[in-house]
Specification:
The chain is mainly α. The protein has helices at about 15-60, 70-80, 85-95, 105-115, 125-135, 165-190, and strands at about 135-145, 145-155. The longest helix has about 50 residues, at about 15-60.
């Protein structure tokens, strides 16, 4: 409850699992792939600059009276900074999950579901994880005492289960390895 914005007191066990899978997949994009992307383009300074933008969004991006203007700016800057990396993250998850689902089938689901997410970026790695795992993410959640209906991501082939957390973490590691390998290959070619 100290780490997420949703109210955790009334969450069912499956809601906790779903929320964890959502958090792991979303944070793959902005916590791992984006810093690697900017490090590859601009070196350590690029990665640090990106992390500064992302941290400002995390701290001030939630609108409140005190930080409304700064929060709006930091949220928009984060959206722009993540446009390319989030889509890369979604594609990498699709290919990391090749033993679960054909990557091109997963990519079609990402193209269908990701734009429905309220964030211009978070939907891509989340929809990819949902596709590969064969579960649905999103749906209703309680935030600051109010039920919020988030779009459903993914074709529900089965119910989400605790083992999906480890499966999602493995997808994260696979996608990270793919990103690092891609960066190294490009650097060797150049």
């Amino acid at each position: 409850s100290f780490m997420v914005s949703r109210d955790t007191g009334a969450m069912s066990f499956s809601d906790v699992v779903r929320g964890t899978v959502e958090s792991v997949s979303e944070n793959l994009g902005d916590g791992v792939i984006a810093p690697l992307f900017y490090a590859a383009l601009f070196g350590p300074v690029g990665a640090l600059a990106y992390r500064a933008i992302n941290t400002m969004d995390a701290m001030f991006g939630y609108r409140n009276e005190r930080y409304v203007e700064f929060g709006r700016w930091s949220a928009r800057a984060d959206d722009v900074a993540n446009l390319i990396p989030s889509r890369i993250a979604g594609a990498l998850v699709c290919f990391a999950g090749i033993r679960h689902l054909d990557p091109f089938t997963a990519l079609r689901q990402v193209a269908r579901y990701a734009p429905q997410h309220e964030s211009p970026n978070a939907g891509y790695p989340e929809a990819a994880a949902a596709a590969v795992l064969g579960v649905q993410l999103g749906g209703p959640g309680v935030y600051h005492g109010v039920i919020k209906e988030k779009p459903v991501l993914g074709d529900k082939l089965r119910e989400i289960e605790p083992a999906d957390i480890n499966r999602c973490v493995n997808l994260m590691w696979g996608a990270t390895a793919e990103m690092v390998a891609g960066i190294v290959a490009i650097l060797l070619i150049l």
